[in-house]
Design goal:
- With 661 residues, the chain is of the alpha+beta class.
- It is 14% helix and 29% strand.
- Strand 7 (157-159) and strand 8 form a beta hairpin.
- Helix 1 (3-21) runs antiparallel to helix 2 and helix 3 runs parallel beside helix 4.
- The chain has an eight-stranded mixed sheet, with helices on one face. Strands 24, 25, 26, 27, 28, 29, 32 and 33 form an eight-stranded mixed sheet that branches.
- It starts with a helix and ends with a strand.
Length: 661
């Protein structure tokens, strides 16, 4: 046996011994106690927009007293629906078409579209004080029949008697749907959203396979947030493989997590990398997991929708910066289409290219209204999909405010479907925002109803980041020459708290020889130039955390929450400690060889209705753009190039470099 092999075996034996000694000991972190409600801070900027459709839950709902005896509704899918697509819904037999006629998609089909018990106070927290009774279960989406240009003028008429003395009108609407696992049903109403009455309804439309494995999305799991025990297992795997290679060959192992949705609770298989397999762990959440208060929350009550079962499997033994394929499912429910994906570069590698943005949500792919629409989301996704398909993107970072489901759980399905083209192909890393976590008396840092009672449960279930534990959504991860420190602005960050101590420790532990760039990310910004900025940038957060960024020479800090793009100088304490200079190509360049302070950028322009700016911004604000888009960062060991790209034009609207020797 050679010396190298003996050394390898000795190291392996030592790790096994250590693992055995720790096998009966829990190494997980203790849960952070929730702060008292009296210590929680008030919300700065609710950002909750109320659409007219959202108020349907608080409107009078009766059967129309006078309606045509010829009314009928038909759908283009008679038997069962595929996993996604469009369905055409026709209302016919209308005697007097009105601009206030509309059709709603309801799910689940067991929802009872009838008058509910009057209980005005129950729903005040959702933002509308309209009188009740209300629609018991929230419609997924709705459209006015006037969206059909032939409806109001009765261009499509039908004779109802032999002499055609009685003519009726019809209209057809196109609805986009995704597999929600529960049947779709369509209900027609008169009198608009303000005083709706029921005209008629369709039979339920089932899905062909409610248990289909769908919406696979990737994340990385190698992080300082990984448990000691998991690190030991990874080290064993590393040694077993490394023993097969010469000592002169540097070998990295990448592990990636894939999570998908299915209506089937039985474990399924992930098949990847030409013959490797992994069995899924299965979880879900229920109404009992949602937050509520004296006033029942949307997530706990009328916004609830069964999430199905969430499957997770880990791919091990992957090479960094390498392309593989995977498929997932089972012989019982079927398998997904084969998907090609790319692993990120290992920490310490010389290059990394990633996309970053915040506040995206989802945009309807039809003419529907929903309770919460983010108009720019689909355009941004389309532009980023083009980037990913070109093969040059290593990772994606979504900095808070994901689906904006805010307690209406079916909207997570639509959001996951929207991001699948990118999240299925490269690692999709996230941070938590106010619309995922905040709720009254839930331990959140800010007392708001912004999550609609979700309290981070769907977010952490759908997007399991390498965090220290449940409801501790902060972590760090290294890719290429970059160390990312990702925090939660929605959990207590005050000096001396668990998260503060973690931030302090993580920033201080970075090996800058291995990862020369240190990027800090969180949802709420420290600075912004929108009107009433104090409602959106918490000065207490800046006072507590900004000194840590300076002390540890953070190169770049990125935030969302405010819905625009803004780039700052190298700022600290509201003052510019350094300004960029133009390089030979005319690009603003910050020289961090002589470090002064972090460069900060607000990147919350990925979908939500855009915010404007004040007319007289502070001196620290260097670039301000109100347009939908995303950012692209290309890092080498000496240069970090950061671009803001307009999603509609695909043009670079702002660009800067940070350089160091």
């Amino acid at each position: 046996m050679g010396r190298e092999t003996m050394t390898c075996v000795s190291r392996f034996s030592l790790i096994v011994l250590v693992l055995a000694l720790t096998s009966s000991t829990s190494l997980s972190f203790r849960p952070m106690p929730l702060p008292d409600e009296a210590d929680l801070m008030r919300e700065f900027g609710n950002h909750t927009a109320i659409s007219s459709f959202r108020t349907i839950n608080r409107r009078e709902l009766i059967t129309c007293p006078i309606k045509s005896p010829y009314l009928a509704m038909n759908v283009s899918i008679i038997s069962s629906a595929p996993n996604d697509g469009f369905i055409y819904v026709t209302l016919s037999g209308v005697l007097h078409p009105a601009s206030s006629d509309w059709i709603a998609m309801i799910s689940p089909s067991t929802s009872d579209v009838k008058t509910c018990i009057t209980d005005t106070i129950m729903y005040k927290q959702t933002g509308d004080l309209a009188s009740l009774p209300l629609l018991c279960h929230y419609p997924v989406k709705a459209q006015y029949l006037s969206n059909d240009p032939n409806y109001l003028n009765c261009a499509n008429s039908q004779c109802q008697d032999s002499s055609c003395l009685i003519k009726t009108c019809s209209g057809t609407l196109k609805f986009h749907y995704v597999n929600m696992r529960t049947d779709m049903e369509f209900v027609s109403f008169a009198n608009g959203f303000d005083a709706p009455c029921i005209l008629t309804r369709t039979n339920p439309v089932p899905f062909a396979n409610p248990s289909s494995p769908l919406r696979g999305h990737l994340s990385s799991i190698d992080s300082t947030g990984t448990s000691v025990r998991a690190l030991l297992y990874s080290l064993i795997l590393f040694l077993l493989i490394a023993c097969q290679y010469s000592n002169s060959k540097r070998y990295h192992i990448i592990q990636m997590k894939l999570r998908w949705i299915s209506g089937d609770q039985n474990p399924q298989q992930l098949q990847y990398a030409n013959g490797q397999t992994a069995t899924s762990n299965v979880t879900t959440f229920t109404q009992n997991d949602m937050c509520t208060s004296i006033l029942p929350s949307p997530a706990k009550d009328f916004g609830w929708h069964d999430p199905g079962y969430i499957h997770t499997a880990v791919m091990t033994g992957l090479q960094p910066s390498t392309t593989y394929t995977y498929t997932y499912g089972s012989s019982t429910v079927g398998f997904s289409n084969q998907t090609q994906f790319k692993t990120p570069p290992a920490g310490g590698s010389p290059t990394l290219t990633f996309l970053a943005f915040g506040d995206m949500g989802k945009t309807p792919l039809d003419a529907s209204v929903e309770h919460y629409i983010q108009p720019g989301a689909v355009g941004v996704i389309d532009a980023m999909t083009s980037e990913v398909q070109q093969g040059g993107i290593d990772a994606i970072f979504h900095i808070g405010d994901m689906a904006y489901a805010t307690g209406f759980l079916v909207e997570w399905d639509y959001f996951l479907d929207l991001i699948t083209p990118i999240a299925s192909q490269v690692t999709y890393m996230t941070s938590i925002g106010n619309h995922e976590r905040d709720y009254i008396s839930s331990g959140a840092m800010y007392i708001t109803p912004d999550s609609g009672g979700e309290c981070g449960v769907p977010y952490e279930t759908y997007f399991p980041m390498p965090t220290p534990g449940k409801d501790k959504p902060w972590y760090s991860i290294e890719m290429g020459p970059v160390h990312f420190t990702v925090i939660s602005t929605e959990h207590d960050w005050r000096v001396g708290t668990e998260q503060y101590n973690w931030i302090q420790s993580d920033l201080a532990s970075v090996n800058r020889a291995n990862t020369p760039w240190l990027i800090f990310a969180g949802h709420r910004p420290m600075y912004t130039s929108i009107p009433a900025a104090f409602l959106n940038a918490d000065a207490r957060f800046t006072k507590a955390i900004e000194p840590l960024l300076l002390q540890n020479k953070v190169d770049l800090a990125i935030f969302g929450h405010v819905h625009n793009y803004e780039r700052l100088c190298a700022v600290y304490g509201g003052q510019c400690l350094a300004m960029p200079v133009k390089d030979a190509n005319g690009i603003d360049t910050y020289n961090n060889s002589n470090y002064s302070a972090p460069v900060q950028a607000v990147i919350g322009m990925a979908g939500f209705k855009l915010d404007g700016f004040v007319s007289n911004p502070s001196a620290w604000s260097l670039s301000r753009i109100s347009a939908f888009g995303y950012t692209k960062c290309q890092a080498t060991t000496t240069t970090l190039n950061f671009k803001f790209i307009n999603a509609n034009t695909e043009q670079v609207m702002d660009q800067f470099n940070i350089v160091k020797q």
